[in-house]
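Chapter review: from sequence to fold.
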Amino acid sequence: METRSLTRTEAERRAELLTVERYDVDIDLTGLLDGPQVRCVSTVTFGCREPGAETFVDCAAQVVTATLNGAPLTPGTDGRIPLPALAAHNVLRVESVQADTATGEGVHRATDPADGEVYVWMSFEPDEARFVWACFDQPDLKAPHAFTVTAPAGWTVTANSGDPVVEERGAARRWTFPDTPRLSVYNTVVNAGPFHEIRRQVDGHDLGLFARRSLAAVLERDAEELFTLTRQGLAFFGEAFAMPFPQTKYDQVFVPEFGGAMENYGCVTWSDVFLRRAEPTPAERELLARVLLHEMAHMWFGNIVTMRWWDDLWLNEAFAEFACHWAAERATRYTDAWAGHLAGDKLKAYLADRGPASHPIHQPIHDVAQAASIFDNITYPKGASVLQQLMTYVGEERFRAGMTAYFARHAWGSATLQDLVDALSEVSGRDLDAWRTAWLATAGTDRFSLERDGDGVTLVADGTPRPQVLAVGAYARKGEALHRTALVRVEVTGPRTPVTGLPSASDTAVLLINDEDLTFATSRPDPAGRDAFFRSAALLPTPISRGVATATVWDMLTTGEATAAEAGRSVTAVLAAETSDAVIEPCLTLASNIAEQWAPDAERAALTAAVAAVCRDLAADPGRRQVALRGLARTATGPDDLARLREQAGDDVDLHWRALVRAAELGEDVTAGTAALLARDPDPDARVRALTVRAALPDPAAKAEVWQRLAVDREVPVSSVGQVADAFWRPGQDALLAPYAERYLELLPRLHQGGMILAMVFAGRLFPPYAVDAAYVEDARQAAREAAPVVRTTLLERSDTVLRMLASRARPDGGR
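The token string follows.
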């Protein structure tokens, strides 16, 4: 069935016409125990403000029967059921079947390879509930939902609200859940399976954790951390927004073959890759905290108050991304969360914002298909950084007061960006219209530099800057290091802004623009001090100051103003000096990426060896050992490094897998090693690790097998696609990889199948970074014009990065 994408005009007309009173959804999962089918009966009670008018309900599942006020209906062929001659009060009943639970949208059936147990999850953003049952699938038609679920007797069912009544029915059980609050359809969920469950009563909340049985030991290991973070987050957001989470039960369900996490009200669904099979590194623990807090922030911003239409999707996601860092620093032990954000996702946002996929943060969205294409680095990390700047601009106390007013005013309804701007303007006394236009309606990134005239300093923008508050830090030498001697906040209102209060030039070694990382802007060092700036990045005293300097180095690499050798040496020096757990891992990834993906062939080995040397040194520190050895597994220069790695890995199965991937890439026979690790690895998904090893082999048969299983048959869970793809696309294997660049183009017309997350992952992670040239990139962009919007946008962003990599690899002054 070819389904139509809901347009904004259609959604606005339905919202004018209808008032949805409630959904009663009866779901039968018993057919999933040994088959593919989910059966649903959706009963929708709704009012019509214009009796006699007509509209439609969304239903992309197979319709068995449909009646409106007792009269039979004829389904359309486009995923809609026409609703003619509406009464003032209506009851719609639709019985439907969804049989594509392996690759379809909305609902997924996964079988655990460890024990053959079946697990089922549902996920509906942006408009995938319609693939499971009949509904008005748009965010502003909110209503209570009552779920009744029949499932196999050995299964546990989770949903949004409260404690269900459970009735035994022979080989099945029937779970009747209380009504939810008024929710958008996409915020609802049902998950089921023979879960391992852990519960904890904390501060008046009933907290639940669920995972497949084969991961019970891992869930038990992480449970205390998860409960602690959940308690801290609920307390922080409840106080910050002057609105405690209004439901007692808060569940978090970790499921197989899921991408990321989803903020379903009161019942967050996670990919169970977040339950690390190996002992988590500090950065992995921090990522867990940030994702947990991101989804929790959506309880208020997204669920309790929902954007009216998908043009404010950016606000929904950017606010949660901002709030998770805010909460992590203020309420948890992860006090370097913003430094980690700068070292990781924010660098991606800077790169995306200067490419062809850049767009204003807030933009018109014609239909839901277009909305699915903007879950990107502009929406998430740039949006989060812009909201951090907004809090800086108005002041945190007034920001909190504005958010409190916003939630109080719009709770259980829908709102727009203007509603938020109005609330913040009222409490801050600032006219934010110019701020809104400059930051949200205009694409691109401001760039600043400094001019000295004697001891006078002027902040100079490249063009007309956005209104913003940022800081300039002055640093002087103290032995071999730098220490900060002044920090001056500056409110930018025009192209040139005097900076007063800085020490004299003779007392200053480095002036750091955007110190403390308060805004979303890039900078450039004084040309005369350019080389010294690159050398000084590692000498700065804090993770944030080193991160700001590294962001400048990275930005200059991506724009062709610095070579990979220069950038690689600078970032590797920062890595050697770094002290923050939040920053070491993203910095290690960045240094390795520069060596592997950006360096000319003649420079790659030396830059990789430099990163490996730092990893060997870091491994001597017990607190850094695990991270350092993982870095060494990626950058090992030959048999000696691999032998050292295997010796130090001990019982760490994860490290042994990583060493095998590198050994395979370097041409070792890894057959016996792979079989031995498969035999001893308790991970139920260890087969994916074995496929990753095979993907790295410089062998035609291995490449053909992996491509078929990864890209064509889609055997790899979406959460592991990137891992396998990274091992498949390796430098120095161009002759082997060239045919697959063409095969990627052949996939484009169907990459959207399976929904938004799958489309983004496959379109981005399978795009070839090697064995291509600029002409290929142009061909790919042309081919993508006919692809789904989410595929087209993902390809455009990724292809721009690859073009920049190609330019960097081709620089004649690569070693500078």
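Two observations follow directly from the output. The mean pLDDT is 96. The radius of gyration is 27 Å.
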